[in-house]
Amino acid sequence: MHKPLPDRAEQKRLAAEAAVGQVADGMIVGIGTGSTAAYAIAALGRRVGEGLRVTGVATSLATAAAARAAGIAIVDLAPIDRIDLCIDGVDEIDAGLRAIKGAGGAMLREKIVAAAADRMIAIADETKRVGQLGRKPVPVEVLPMAQAFVVREIARLGGDATVRCDPAGTAVRSDQGNIIIDAAFGAIADPAALATALSTVPGILGHGLFLVEIDTLYLGTADGVVTVD
Ligand code: 5RP
């Protein structure tokens, strides 16, 4: 009898476990946020249970809680200037390892942890692979007082801005207490120019375009994990 092909959840798990296989004893590990990262937390927790010594830096409060529950020691990033390896999910990623992140609203902390890391491995199932970035909106974290101004600036840049709300209609707050605006641009012809433009808008504290941070992609596919460097 044939083994069933990996479904989407299985692809996430396989990619996450391949990435956790790159963690060496003594490393400081940046731990991502989301459902794919949750598989990495479980796998890393198992390795810690087997004796691996790691220090984790979490990209969100939810990840910190899940990692601690899995037995992983989590420390604050504030006194740490260098992380060995960051493992995190993506919302979409192109052939040049440029990605959009932040569907979980954690892209500000995720960007800092990724930038502090010597190496970042993105983990994803094959639905995340795109020919051109922009199928999904670019999430931006915004100081609440700047909401209307940032909406106007996103429109000036050609985007369609939506303040992220929960089902009750209340604006979602980031771990830092800021609002999230999802900025839809459609196919992004020049991601670097857009990243620069977003970064220069006062009130935008961070955005979900990750254009230079990712070194390696572990992509779960129906045929197993494909590595893209
Ligand atoms: C959170 C993120 C996540 O990594 C991204 O949304 C992918 O999540 P998932 O693995 O659940 O698809 O950027 O801010």
UniProtKB/TrEMBL annotation:
It catalyses: aldehydo-D-ribose 5-phosphate = D-ribulose 5-phosphate. The keyword Ribosomal protein does not apply. It comes from the Bacteria. GO terms for biological process: D-ribose metabolic process; pentose-phosphate shunt, non-oxidative branch. Keywords: Isomerase. The keyword Isomerase applies. It is an enzyme of class 5 (isomerase). InterPro entries: NagB/RpiA_transferase-like, Ribose5P_isomerase_typA_subgr, Ribose5P_isomerase_type_A. GO terms for molecular function: ribose-5-phosphate isomerase activity. GO terms for cellular component: cytosol. CDD domains: RPI_A. Its EC number is 5.3.1.6. Homodimer. This is Ribose-5-phosphate isomerase A. It comes from Alterirhizorhabdus solaris. The lineage of its organism: Bacteria, Pseudomonadati, Pseudomonadota, Alphaproteobacteria, Sphingomonadales.
